[in-house]
Write a structure and sequence with these properties.
3 domains; FAD/NAD(P)-binding domain; 17 helices; 4-stranded antiparallel beta sheet; about 625 residues; 7-stranded mixed beta sheet; alpha+beta; about 15% strand
Length: about 625
Amino acid sequence: MQKLTSFILFLFCVSISTAQNQVDILIIGGGAGGISAAIQAARMGVKVQIIEATPWLGGMLTSAGVSAIDGNHEMPSGIWGEFRQKLRNHYGGAAALATGWVSHTLFEPSIGNKFLQEMAAIPNLDIAFNAVYTDVNKLTELNSAQGSDSWSVNYKQKGKTYTTTAKILIDATEIGELLPLVGADFRLGMDAKSDTGEKEAPETANNIVQDLTYVLILEDVGGDSRLRGNDRKGLVKKPKNYNPDVYACACKREDGEMFGGVSGCEQMLSYGKLPNNKYMMNWPNCGNDFYLNWPELSAAERQEKLKEAKDFTQGFVYYIQNELGFKNFRVAHEFPTKDNFPMIPYDREGRRAKGKTFLTVDHMERLYDFTFYRTGIAVGDYPIDHHHDKNPDTPEIEFINIKVPSYNIPLGSLVPQSVENFIVAEKNISVSNIVNGATRLQPVVLGIGQAAGALAATSILENKKPSEISIRQVQNALLKSNAYIMPFIDVQKEDAAFAAMQRMGATGIVKGSGVPYKWANQTWFYPNRTVSEYEWKTGLLPYFPELGNIPASGAGITLTFITSIVQMIQPDYPIAKIQKQWNNWAISQTFDETLELNRRTVSILTDKLLNPFAVEIDWNGRIK
């Protein structure tokens, strides 16, 4: 009996040391995309786990220290908008976040992590912090309780090994680490012109990736007791191989069309000024960008080279404190690390999955020449911005002068071609190398993650693979969560007709107008402009080809014309119902059958009366 008890105890200890967990969705990486995916999926009622290597959430937003938001100031979509509102509430409004000239929204990384942790404290979501995955395995129906094409991942945490099985796996790592491990096809580096059709791309492909940055957060302690006596806290040591010449032009930059001139060191430092007299040191001009050719390195070699990247940033701060004389700018204790550096570097680029769709510059430049826009699930307005100054072998391309309006990202860019039940949710989506310069930014990745979570949760709830899910169903889930699927700058999510205008924009029945504009590109919907009969009928034709012979003029559309079309498609529709529902549908125009109707009203009526958004589309946006 004693031997049996000992044996049972032994088995119990073994099971504890390799504890098993079963979830619906497993996310590797708790960065911007990973945490956003997790929150969305958990809110939709499915069981989610994140495996995160650091003690923080947010990735580049927080753990990498890049706490100056690039873009989407006028499009606070979904979880990005929620996160920003928490920051505004904490600091005292929008103006309190506009501390540096690089962004409208700057914050302390530790505060960003705090709010993401709060947002993640919800039912259905478990997070394994300080956990590192060790292997990823695809399970067959024979060896999985969750059916075919499910996943098993082992990870280590505090010296113990754990195993999680899941129906769906999401790669939310910063550089697309899982893509080669699961056998997914991917792109890496700069694409050839022949591969993408982009006139701006180089003739020959290469594996060159963007410069990365190891950020440091400084604080201005002017007047602090640290400046009295010999207190050297926050002053950095001169690193080995320090060369002041590489930083010599940091305080001066010539004026340009996109990037304004920098004429002094105070202006350079205030670029990334954060609340509470802190400063984000992520300076591209003779600053701390660093080229690391990681595609050709092993994991161990990459870690060794990252030490050089840290030294390079330390050299930049040493230059600021000693050569420029800003000894009042001390390294802040912002991160839970011994050296006060962030936990991870800011990787601007990683492996990019080959997905159901492949977004290129042409799709962004000429939105309506293609139909990808109909499948949109996340939006962005930042220009195409690449960092290649530290690698002289990079082909010379004026990325910042590639003009595009604001854009949306097709759902198919999140779904790899070759692997089922696997979704990507970070900078690893299916876009060209050039396009990655815009889609890599923080609010866009938060949107990508939210869409990945909505797709994964819908897949679980429908008991289908992500590749089988209705695109329109995912888009509706996102709209329900106040996320944008079309990049309309003048359609506010607080508007009762927000979802209707977004849906009609995504059908192409009522189109927007794109404008490349400085550092915040635009697409305008113009809700108050009149719609012509011809414009509306032309937009409807792909969905209702029977309207082809109906005469339609360039005159403003009226309710009389709309009801005549509705009765053709739905002869039994009670037209009197429109007047009864007019106010319930939040239509702001007066009910008058002869009044010319604006785009907002037409969107609501089209959505309610004809429901073209219910017509299914394929991954390319073509009507099925």
